[in-house]
C-alpha cells in the first residue's frame, strides 16, 4: 500500500512534466503572436515571467494574416480540402471495407494486403510517380489534384473492415432473407451502426489532411490553391523572418483541429478501442 501511495505523486509529477514539454512551446507561440516583431526574442535570455507574459499586446500579426497574406482564402482552401476528403473518403473506405467483409472474390486476400501496404509505405516513395500521374490528368494546381489522391485511405479501410467483422452475421442474413438489396443493407443497416468508427476515421482523415504539407506543396503552384501548412513557409524570406505572423498562423493551424477533436474525443477513443482484430 505504501508503494502504491508513493507511486501516485510520481505519476502526477511525470504527467506535469510531460504536459509542460507539450504546452510550453505552444504557450510561447501564442504569446509571441501577440507581440511586436522586435520583442519576440528580447526576453528569451534569461528566461523570466516576461518570456511567457507579453508586456505589450497587439493583434497586428493576426490582422496582417487576413488583410495582407490572404489567409482567408488559405483557410477556406484547407478546410474545403479537408472536409471533402472526410466526406468522400468515408464513403469510399466504408464501401471498400463492406466489399472485403461481405463478398468473396478471387484475389481478395492479396488485394487487402495491398490496402495494408498503402499506409505502411512512406509517402515520399510514391510522391514522384503520383505527381507524374496527376500531371498527365491535368490536375496540377487544382482542387482535384489535392483531394483525389488522398481519398482512398488504407488505414480507414482497415478500421471499417475490423468493425464490420464484429457485427453479427445474422443481421445481414435476416436482411437478405427479407429481400433487402446490398445497397440497402449498407446504407440502411450497417452504416447507422458505425457512428464510433466513422467519427474516428473522419477525425483521422481530417487531421491528416489539415496537417498535410508535402503533397499540397508539390501539387499546387499558384496562391489560389495554397493550404495553411504550405503558407506557413512563406514567412521565411531571404531578408527577414516574420516570426510574429508565423506564430499567429501556427496558432490558427493548431486551434482548428483541437476545436474539432475535443467535442468528439469520446467517440474517437471508443471507435479506436472497439475496432478489434477479429479475423
UniProtKB/TrEMBL annotation:
GO terms for cellular component: plasma membrane. Keywords: Cell membrane, Membrane, Transmembrane, Transmembrane helix, Transport. Its main location: membrane. Residues 75-264 form the ABC transmembrane type-1 domain. The chain crosses the membrane at residues 12-34, 79-103, 110-131, 143-164, 185-207, 246-264. It comes from the Bacteria. InterPro entries: MetI-like (IPR000515). PROSITE patterns: ABC_TM1. CDD domains: TM_PBP2. It holds the Pfam family BPD_transp_1. It is a multi-pass membrane protein. GO terms for biological process: transmembrane transport. The keyword Iron does not apply. It is found in: Cell membrane. PANTHER family: ABC TRANSPORTER PERMEASE PROTEIN MG189-RELATED-RELATED, SN-GLYCEROL-3-PHOSPHATE TRANSPORT SYSTEM PERMEASE PROTEIN UGPE. Belongs to the binding-protein-dependent transport system permease family. This is L-arabinose transport system permease protein AraQ. The gene is araQ_7.
